[in-house]
């Protein structure tokens, strides 16, 4: 069982104990909570001490938040340099939004581990369009969002306009008709480049595609 301090820090830095609602809490209030609660806990946490002495408290706080979520902070910061300047409030708003759409805390290591860029997404312009795409174009019900996202976290890091829609239109044009199969089993095709991957490789006469996918 985790120590009370670690549990409190986990809640303060990253998560809400209850199912969050969106939009996220007032940023000024969240700033006050973060400033008031985690400092002493953070300094006593075993993950805090080994970090470089010259790192700011905010960076150490961010590193600890990522590690508590089960995300490799070094890999995440390396693959997504924008995380260095991202605020905990912005990360919290993304976490809250994903939870409000059925994503669970235990899913975050896989999702953010595979695509740390999601942690610096814009909820309004990046994430909401993806969920709208799943609902409107692939007919995924809200209670199945989690299944689809866990299958292919890269969906959350893909542009609906520049990637997901063009890929879907191309796949439909060459004969993919089973939207359910595309959403739940072959969603990696939606995040593949049409020009560099799908067009060269998806030739129906060379693929073993189930009959149900095709007219």
From TrEMBL:
Keywords: Transcription, Transcription regulation, Transcription termination, Transit peptide. It comes from Quercus suber (Cork oak). Belongs to the mTERF family. This is Transcription termination factor mtef1. One of its GO terms (biological process) is DNA-templated transcription termination. It holds the Pfam family mTERF. One of its GO terms (molecular function) is nucleic acid binding. Transmembrane segments: none annotated. Gene3D superfamilies: Transcription termination factor 3, mitochondrial. InterPro entries: MTERF (IPR003690), MTERF_sf (IPR038538).
């Amino acid at each position: 069982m985790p120590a009370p301090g670690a549990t409190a820090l986990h809640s303060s830095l990253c998560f809400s104990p209850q199912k969050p609602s969106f939009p996220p809490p007032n940023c000024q209030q969240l700033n006050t909570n973060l400033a008031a609660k985690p400092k002493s806990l953070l300094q006593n946490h075993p993950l805090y001490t080994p970090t470089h002495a010259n790192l700011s408290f905010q960076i150490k706080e961010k590193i600890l938040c990522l590690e508590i979520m089960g995300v490799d902070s070094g890999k995440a910061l390396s693959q997504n340099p924008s995380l260095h300047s991202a605020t905990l409030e912005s990360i919290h708003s993304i976490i809250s939004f994903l939870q409000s759409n059925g994503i669970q805390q235990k899913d975050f290591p896989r999702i953010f581990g595979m695509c740390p860029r999601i942690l610096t997404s814009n909820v309004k312009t990046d994430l909401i369009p993806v969920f709208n795409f799943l609902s409107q174009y692939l007919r995924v019900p809200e209670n199945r969002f989690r299944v689809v996202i866990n299958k292919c976290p890269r969906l959350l890091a893909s542009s609906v306009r520049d990637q997901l829609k063009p890929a879907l239109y191309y796949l439909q044009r060459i004969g993919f008709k089973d939207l359910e199969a595309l959403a739940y089993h072959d969603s990696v095709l939606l995040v593949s480049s049409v020009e560099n991957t799908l067009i060269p490789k998806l030739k129906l006469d060379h693929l073993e595609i189930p009959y149900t996918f095709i007219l």
